[in-house]
């Protein structure tokens, strides 16, 4: 006869149930826990005698017991005091032979114990880190790495846990420093990179780990170290953007509208509230103080020493300690040249290193050209660069070379010369400039780029006919002589003479200045007092929206005043420019030029202190003066665009191989497929296709979720449907008739149905 | 004519130069050898097919290996085979008894009761004097005693009974057997250490009840008490002192003095209790070879008082359980004899 099993007993027979009960009422289930714990103890002892056996046969397995105990360990701290140590010891001694599932369970349990704050982060990380380096199992490594990163993230989530960070960073550093030739250092690099990406580690210590990694003697460690410096900051920015982007936009207006229409119940109410809270939180996050993170390249302790060591260790010797292939070498070279360009370092042997790679047949030669340009800056001696430029010209730029090659060469030369114009000789430049007559579009454009560059920085090297009007005039004026080597602009204030002229025109003397200084903070509050002060404050006030009538009036008057002031400025400037032009054409003697140059150096900055309003005005004047007023509007616009594009390219940005090879795309005729693709439009590159403006506008509108206008709808209406209306012409009312007639007259004035208004 | 133009095209194709681009890697040569490979593995869907023609020893070994099979029927069948094999020929087994025991003992914790029943049968036919070290067996037994499932607990108690019946001295000689086993019993019966104070530390709000593990299982409690009394008897009984033994021995080998110390030891691992090569042991896992030592530690750890208190309470329930408790009490009296 079968023994009847009581319901309670049956329920007792599984650990999750017991776990649940214990969590609810720890003291009552103490006995059950103790018996389970003693079973764990005996199982563990058994297991320790033969760690390789799997424990799959029994009903209750060791890993279940470990899981159970770690879940309730916080209820019985005294009984389980030894439990974490047992696990750590088991893992440390037997991680190679443990059953996979048991091993993962132990790791998970340790992390769980850390979450319950039974063990601290240091203990956990000091257990997991050596395992990560020692274990041969790939799966375990992935698990451990993930756990380590997540633990470091959580312990840094509220405030930075500097003590822990320093500890782990030191461990990472020592791992690489103690044995530079071992590939284990890769884990230190990986961890640092991941934490850098997530903005957990942002300090110089993390950078120093990567520094030593880049100087180590294992190819993989070296590569990942250098790649960190080259790409980590973009990665970090992208990660930050991703985080803010991943929550989809909530349209509050739409939701409120929905709530107004749909049936009202508690659930919808709740949903609306959560959405509102989410939007609010997001707004708060957006307005929150943005932490300023320094780029890794700026956090280096000794860039000169680092660049020198990198170059001497990996690139210069014929038999380096670690053999890098071309791709890895290029990474190192990129980093070295980036450092040289960014910090304006002096590393003379680097330039002669480039020489042997500057041939068209060299694989990825465009990268070499880009890195050469990157390594050039204004403090590199021109006689070091001259042979390089000469070599590029000889190897790449000739009638016999392919168009692509020539354009790449010209582009490379141009990028070098942008940074150090003195690297070019007259004869070579005059020779190269002649390629602008080439039949090939790419070569043509590249040569033109070089020409326009030298019109700005060294017009005297060009032939007279190539200089162009502006450069020629400038030369005659004595400007545009080109900087000498090592010359630095002596800290003048750009555009100060414009301000002086403007003050003369406005009739502001030194007495008024003193007054202005006396109550300058009062004035800055009251923007009505003088025209010159308006622009400081006007931006802020236009933004906030208020309903009171008085304020509106005030604002309107303020705007009017501002407009008037602007008009005056413009008139003044036009006059000044006209004067300047006439004077320039009238006097041709060099002496006069010298005199004018002296006069140009303004006394204003040395005689008085500029008020904030002065500075604001100065900025404005500088911007308007930058685009010469008497140019035709199309040309002016073009110049403006160019200036903007140049400003957008930051000095810290790198030169890429694509920029060098960019114009080569023009050298070959587009295939039919390419043309079709352009006509269809690429969603990734909306600017660069051949679609019509209308098509683009339409797509933009659709993307914004907007509908068509009534007019567009009417235009598209089926012809048959409009017939009924047309037939009724005779039956119109007088009012209707009048409206139609008026519309007709109006249309005539505008110049047609779709005329410009 | 058509064929000639075709031929021309073919010829042209042969000598076409691959287009090289500046800054890009060279395209692979047409005669380049692809050295990549992918590994393949062979999966055998069934084990060895040939059952016949195997001699007894291989069959024995095969069945021994089947003890760790995933299939419970296979495990049981293997146990049955081993039982008959051992019973038929206890002296000339192809493998030592200790190997059989070490393979079979994990099945104490097996989830299927037929397997465990068969395991008990196997244990009972094993020849007593060739069993070898019992350390692991005792560990498995202790694990079984605290198992969640009542059935497994019962089996573990049966195994403990068998151990005490066959080889009580060897059981007591195992490291940690005395104190740890007693602690396990103490836990199971929830006879707490200090009977005078509150039995379980609580928050003070609730009076806690006895654990539910004994609910509705008088049979289990009975068995536990019986096994405990046997265990205590085995542990606490002193060997009757033989006053003449020493003289007799001295007379037997007269010129020699303390002969036994110089002879080869008669039991296995005679210095095991010294624990020369293992990890250091604490009080619980120490070996207590002598009954005197066992009594002392039993009193020292305050187990004696706890057990007496617990037994007193159980005895009051009367009936079969009360009788078993009386047995335990009788065993406990052995402490006071000294």
UniProtKB/TrEMBL annotation, chain A:
SUPFAM superfamilies in the record: ARM repeat
Domain SDA1 N-terminal, chain residue ranges per copy: 68-439
A Pfam match: SDA1_C
Disordered as annotated region, ranges: 468-489, 506-597, 666-757
Basic and acidic residues bias spans: 670-692, 700-712, 733-749
Coiled-coil features, chain-numbered ranges: none
Comp. bias regions, Acidic residues: 538-550
Keyword Phosphoprotein assigned: no
Residue ranges of domain SDA1 C-terminal in the record: 706-751
This protein's UniProt keywords: Nucleus, Protein transport, Ribosome biogenesis, Transport
InterPro entries with a match to the protein in the record: ARM-type_fold (IPR016024), Sda1 (IPR027312), SDA1_C (IPR048292), SDA1_MD (IPR007949), SDA1_N (IPR012977)
Main localisation: nucleus
Family indicated by similarity: Belongs to the SDA1 family.
Its job: Required for 60S pre-ribosomal subunits export to the cytoplasm.
Protein name: Protein SDA1
Source organism (scientific name): Zasmidium cellare
TrEMBL record, chain B:
Localisation: Nucleus
Alphabetized InterPro entries for the sequence: ARM-like, ARM-type_fold, Ipi1_N
Pfam (any one): Ipi1_N
First-listed, main subcellular location of the protein, grouped into a coarse class: nucleus
Pre-rRNA-processing protein Ipi1 N-terminal domain mapped to chain residues: 134-232
Top-level taxon in the UniProt lineage: Eukaryota
Keywords from the UniProt entry: Nucleus, Ribosome biogenesis, rRNA processing
Region span, Disordered: 1-34
The keyword Nucleus is assigned to this record: yes
Gene3D superfamilies: Leucine-rich Repeat Variant
Residue spans of biased composition, Basic residues class: 1-10, 18-27
Record's keyword annotation contains ATP-binding: no
Complex formation: Component of the RIX1 complex.
Family label: Belongs to the IPI1/TEX10 family.
Function statement: Component of the RIX1 complex required for processing of ITS2 sequences from 35S pre-rRNA.
Protein's UniProt name: Pre-rRNA-processing protein
Source organism of the structure: Zasmidium cellare (Wine cellar mold)
